[in-house]
Amino acid sequence: MISDEDIFNLPDDLDNPHEYDTDYKLEDDEWFGIEDFSETDFCIDILTTDFNSAEYNQIALADYNRLKYLCSYQDNQYYYFQKLSRSQTIRRKWFTISNQPEIQNDNPIIILKELPDAIYDSEEDILYFKKLTSITTIFSGIGTLYREATQEDTEQFLENEFINLTDDYDASKVKKANRKRIAMAMDTFNAFNPQQRNSIYDYIKEYCNDLEFSDEDRNFNIGSEENLKQLMYGIEQRYYTTPIGNEKRLANSITTI
């Protein structure tokens, strides 16, 4: 489409990327990063060959409405990606702000974001991004990072001895958000030894007063999505008490330091 033009500026906050985690919420100056991206199954061909614009055809005017994303190759190192949607293509009358304003009627425009949806550093072989959902149409299969428990996984998890299902609640009623939490909690809980499992029960009892626990059967009554969410947060140890004031809190996102 365009040659010899820098579309995006390289952000200055790519120094310390976070490994992708569904439960971690990025600060404004943070990015997720996938190292060795060229070796993953969702890397696209344009990133694994030497880029030469002469090898690509100029896009026809009629094909602009079929664009799924923009890619800008800059500084012989960085690939910038922006997902395109209908909301970013404006088809209205507009005029340029210049010495001689001119009304445009038949020329739709595409809005460019201040920050790209993804940046690939070809020298470091790292893909940076903010939101996984913004790049799933660019990198096919990358959505598998956003792992969700299958129906079989969900049923198996709810069959654990420390869970007692009540109020007709079962795997068919577990919604998407809790399936994602189950996918993570399964890995965490399976890594616990028997002593750690007993400790986590006591930890959950301390913070989740709404969860009924049977000391005799050593299980929690789970009868709703909210019950299950509290249990998942407990397994991930996201509850804590402030050292000053002894205020009980829930961590909105977590990262290992």
Features:
three-stranded mixed beta sheet; five-stranded antiparallel beta sheet; alpha+beta; 257 residues
Instruction: Give the structural class.
Output: alpha+beta
Distance between the termini: 44 Å
Strand order of the largest sheet: 1-9-8-3-2
Strand-residue proportion: 15-25%
pLDDT below 50 for ≥5 consecutive residues: which ranges? none
Evaluate the radius of gyration.
24 Å
Question: How would you explain this protein's 3D organization?
Answer:
With 257 residues, this protein is of the alpha+beta class. 19% of the residues lie in helices and 18% in strands. The longest helix is centred in the last third of the chain and has 15 residues, at 176-190. The protein starts with 31 loop residues before the first strand and ends in a 7-residue tail after the last strand. The mean pLDDT is 87.
In short:
With 257 residues, the chain is α+β, with helices and mostly antiparallel strands. The protein has helices at residues 151-158, 176-190, 194-207, 225-235; strands spanning 32-35, 69-74, 78-83, 89-90, 94-95, 103-104, 109-110, 118-121, 126-129, 163-165, 213-214, 219-222, 239-241, 248-250.
